[in-house]
């Protein structure tokens, strides 16, 4: 196959522009563009714009052209900072390199997803990495730049554009044979525009309170650890004592997983799982894994009081975003989300898809019983009734215990949870967990057949694609069990990406994506209408991804002067604020 | 056309275009050529805790030889049974399937005219007949001297039978349990030749 044939998919565009910006961006701030170089692929025409010239110019990329970049949110963030209109079509080679490598990075010896990593993989020559690092350092040192700096930085920027010209055909040669590749790639590019918009807007936080907390954080942290330790008779000082922990678990009636050697498993992952199943464990997890590591100064908050950080789209295997856990306000412990607060006259809304994974599983598998259960509005109770575990007419109030059990089962099965883990989560005998799992397999036999077929497909074809072509590659190291949840997770990611595109196009002020939810903002008086529009667009995205099934949404609106809060973090937030008040009074 | 209509039309057109980009997610088994292979068919009594059904027509009468010490059962052709007649029991093999969709053959010992009525054999045959139309489980009751049958009250749906033919199922089940020559190790052992 020739290069020309590989790139034939781009013939629909009159012009194809390769582009790169150099910019500085302090944590939490929007990018400050220094220069850009753009080059038309076919004619070779090159445009170099430096600083003031850049600000005085219009975008060199015509409205109907295709823009080819590497990590589009950063480049498009510069478009937004300059007030340039967003290009209509974007091909992000970062997204395509991730899609090329996803799941087989290790097997191919690929390290990371940077432009250098992509070039290195295809054996393409580029600037010497040390030279590149040198220019990056000089750019980050900021203005003023000498004439020599200007020439060097522009040449360096142009070298990245030349690299794109080599990377584009290399990637196209490997991807063009995938079904509908270019259309899917452009859809990913469309999402990158939405990401740039979100990174530009950011999430409003209570910056004065954050500064107060940061100033006292070390004292608060120590106090918190001590108060929690005092509340739980399992610590000596701040150290967890296993014998005391074991006795406490027996008193609480919690069946705690053990290691091969029979000891209580105290891994971070296990604490995370158990804290979800047993909220009483959450503060212990905070002490062990979260508080000690938490540095409030890592949160990237700009001078305008908004949290902005790279959302790292398509970074996870499922295609979900993977923003920094320490810099993104939704990253660290959930109690910190109480710092999210609308500005005066404004409101925020957190809108999430209701039981998204169950809806996707039911829709894509074509399991009519599971779909009926999902559409009933309470898939857990509906399962209980379908499986004969609760009578017809049972409600959340009359059959809470059985509903809770079925909820743990229904959610767990989507992740391939086995009987022992389920028994631990339910605090029930293994035999009961086994019976529940068997009931699920019988009640939703079509889903199980589909789920196994998805794994078979993956193992036989060596990959698994989402509705819009996000591919997970299978290697010798891939565990079949890890594939169980992949169709739901990866198509859920597609759904949220599409929803974000629609929201931005509809003019909804989108602040951030949060797993299967979004945070939007609007003036207080317009929030109800904004939520209604957002929910309409999210249902629309769901219908397209599932092939016709609607996934409902739930919205929580917060109006100034109230603040956002996550129910899981309320107790901790109260403890923190009480300690801060005490310290402020003592200092006064 | 007002702006709202224009927006709705544009969105409808966008939706249709996006729907045309969907890749199939049905993973139909035919697409990848996968079918379940029946590789093992145990020959045993039903487990006392498992509910099961018995196929109404798939059955085979034959003789079995049970090596009690080794806890092994072999099936012998009628022509060879005469050589070891004192060790042979007439049995009826019935195709069963459990609630876990595990297919197995249940060797039900048949009554012998030269012996008095055996309640174990009789109750097993009656249970098998009931299991042709009901989900049951079976437990030996030593005090009763017979099998106790428990019928599921709930509607557990229809059993899922193997897609293989009855002959194929029998071949799979008996492939390493058939005595088909005088020279077979079991016959040699029983006759004291080995």
Report on the structure:
The complex is a heterodimer of chains A (588) and B (194). Chain A has 588 residues and is α+β, with helices and mostly antiparallel strands. Chain A has 3 domains: 3-201, Nucleotidyltransferase, domain 5; 207-298 and 571-587, no CATH class; 357-468, no CATH class. In chain A, 51% of the residues lie in helices and 12% in strands. Chain A is built from 24 helices and 15 strands. Chain A has helices at 3-6, 51-56, 72-82, 93-101, 105-108, 115-121, 129-141, 147-175, 181-201, 207-231, 242-252, 268-277, 282-290, 356-365, 368-375, 379-386, 400-414, 419-426, 430-443, 445-461, 480-483, 486-505, 527-546, 570-587; strands spanning 16-24, 32-40, 46-50, 66-69, 89-92, 203-204, 235-236, 239-240, 306-307, 346-353, 463-465, 471-473, 509-514, 517-523, 553-559. In chain A, the strands form 5 sheets. Chain A has a 5-stranded mixed sheet, with helices on both faces. The longest helix of chain A is centred in the first third of the chain and has 29 residues, at 147-175. The radius of gyration of chain A is 26 Å and the shape is globular. Chain A starts with a helix and ends with a helix. With 194 residues, chain B is of the alpha+beta class. Chain B has a domain at 52-62 and 89-176. In chain B, 27% of the residues lie in helices and 27% in strands. Chain B has 6 helices and 7 strands, in the order ααββαββαββαβα. Chain B has helices spanning 3-20, 29-32, 78-81, 119-130, 166-174, 185-190, and strands spanning 52-67, 72-76, 88-98, 103-109, 136-141, 146-151, 178-179. In chain B, strands 4-3-1-2-7 form a 5-stranded mixed sheet. A two-stranded antiparallel ribbon of chain B has the order 5-6. In chain B, a hairpin with a 4-residue loop joins strand 1 and strand 2 (72-76). The longest helix of chain B has 18 residues, at 3-20. Chain B is elongated, with a radius of gyration of 27 Å.
């Amino acid at each position: 196959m020739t290069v020309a044939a590989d790139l034939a998919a781009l013939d629909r565009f009159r012009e194809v522009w390769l582009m790169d910006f150099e910019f500085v961006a302090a944590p939490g701030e929007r990018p400050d563009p220094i220069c850009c170089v753009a080059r038309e692929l076919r004619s070779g025409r090159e445009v170099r714009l430096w600083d003031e010239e850049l600000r005085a110019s219009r975008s060199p990329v015509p409205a109907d052209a295709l823009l080819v970049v590497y990590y589009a949110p950063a480049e498009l963030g510069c478009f937004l900072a300059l007030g340039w209109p967003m290009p209509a079509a974007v091909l992000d080679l970062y997204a395509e390199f991730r899609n090329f490598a996803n799941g087989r990075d290790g097997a191919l010896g690929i390290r990371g997803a940077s432009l250098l990593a992509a070039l290195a993989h295809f054996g393409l020559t580029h600037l010497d990495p040390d030279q590149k690092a040198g220019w990056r350092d000089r750019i980050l040192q900021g203005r003023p730049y000498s004439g020599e700096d200007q020439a060097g930085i522009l040449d360096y920027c142009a070298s990245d554009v030349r690299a794109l010209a080599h990377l584009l055909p290399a990637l196209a040669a490997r991807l063009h044979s995938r079904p509908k590749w270019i259309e899917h790639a452009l859809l990913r590019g469309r999402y990158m525009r939405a990401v740039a918009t979100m990174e530009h807007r950011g999430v409003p936080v209570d910056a004065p309170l954050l500064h107060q907390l940061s100033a006292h954080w070390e004292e608060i942290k120590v106090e918190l650890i001590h108060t929690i330790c005092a509340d739980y008779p399992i610590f000596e000082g701040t150290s967890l004592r296993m014998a005391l922990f074991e006795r406490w678990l027996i008193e609480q009636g919690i069946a705690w997983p053990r290691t091969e050697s029979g000891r209580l498993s105290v891994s971070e992952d296990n604490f995370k799982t158990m804290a979800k199943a047993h909220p009483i464990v959450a503060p212990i997890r905070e002490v062990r894994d979260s508080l000690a590591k938490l540095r409030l100064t890592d949160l990237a908050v700009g001078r305008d009081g908004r949290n902005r950080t790279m959302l790292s789209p398509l970074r996870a295997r499922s295609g979900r975003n993977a923003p920094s856990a320490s810099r993104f306000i939704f990253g660290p412990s959930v109690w910190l989300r109480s710092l999210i607060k609308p500005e005066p006259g404004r409101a925020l809304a957190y809108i999430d898809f209701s039981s998204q994974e169950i809806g996707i599983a039911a829709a894509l598998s074509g399991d009519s019983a599971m779909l009926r259960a999902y559409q009933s509005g309470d898939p857990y109770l509906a399962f209980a009734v379908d499986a004969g575990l609760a009578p017809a007419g049972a409600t959340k109030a009359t059959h809470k215990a059985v509903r809770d059990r079925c909820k743990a089962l229904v959610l767990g099965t989507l992740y391939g949870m086995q009987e022992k883990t389920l028994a631990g989560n339910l605090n029930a005998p293994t035999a009961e967990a086994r019976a529940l799992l068997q009931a699920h397999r019988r009640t939703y036999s079509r889903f199980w057949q589909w789920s196994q077929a998805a794994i078979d497909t993956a193992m036989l074809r060596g990959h698994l694609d989402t509705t819009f072509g996000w591919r997970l590659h299978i290697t010798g190291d891939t565990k079949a069990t890890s594939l169980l949840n992949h169709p739901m997770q990866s198509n859920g990611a597609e759904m949220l990406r599409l929803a974000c595109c629609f929201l931005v196009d509809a003019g909804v002020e989108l602040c951030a994506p949060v797993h299967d939810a979004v945070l939007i903002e609007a003036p207080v008086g317009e929030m109800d209408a904004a939520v209604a529009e957002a929910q309409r667009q999210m249902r629309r995205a769901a219908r397209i991804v599932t092939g016709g099934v609607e996934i409902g949404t739930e919205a929580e609106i917060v109006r100034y002067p109230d603040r956002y809060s996550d129910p899981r973090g309320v107790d901790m937030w109260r403890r923190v604020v009480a300690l801060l008040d005490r310290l402020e009074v003592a200092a006064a | 056309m007002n702006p709202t209509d224009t927006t709705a039309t544009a969105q409808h057109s966008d939706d249709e275009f996006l729907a045309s980009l969907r890749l199939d997610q049905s993973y139909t088994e035919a697409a990848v050529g996968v079918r379940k292979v029946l590789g093992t068919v145990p020959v045993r009594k039903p487990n006392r805790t498992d509910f099961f059904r018995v196929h109404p027509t798939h059955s085979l009468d034959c003789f079995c030889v049970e090596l009690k010490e080794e806890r092994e059962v072999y099936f012998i052709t009628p022509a060879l049974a005469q050589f070891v007649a004192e060790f042979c029991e007439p049995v009826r093999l019935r195709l069963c399937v459990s609630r876990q969709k595990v297919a197995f053959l249940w060797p039900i010992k048949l009554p012998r005219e030269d012996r008095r009525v055996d309640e174990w054999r009789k109750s097993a045959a009656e249970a098998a007949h009931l299991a042709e139309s009901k989900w049951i489980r079976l437990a030996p009751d030593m005090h009763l001297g017979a099998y106790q049958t428990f019928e599921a009250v709930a509607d557990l749906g229809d059993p899922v039978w193997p897609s293989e033919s009855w002959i194929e199922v029998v071949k799979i089940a008996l492939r390493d349990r058939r005595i088909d020559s005088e020279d077979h190790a079991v016959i040699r052992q029983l006759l004291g030749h080995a």
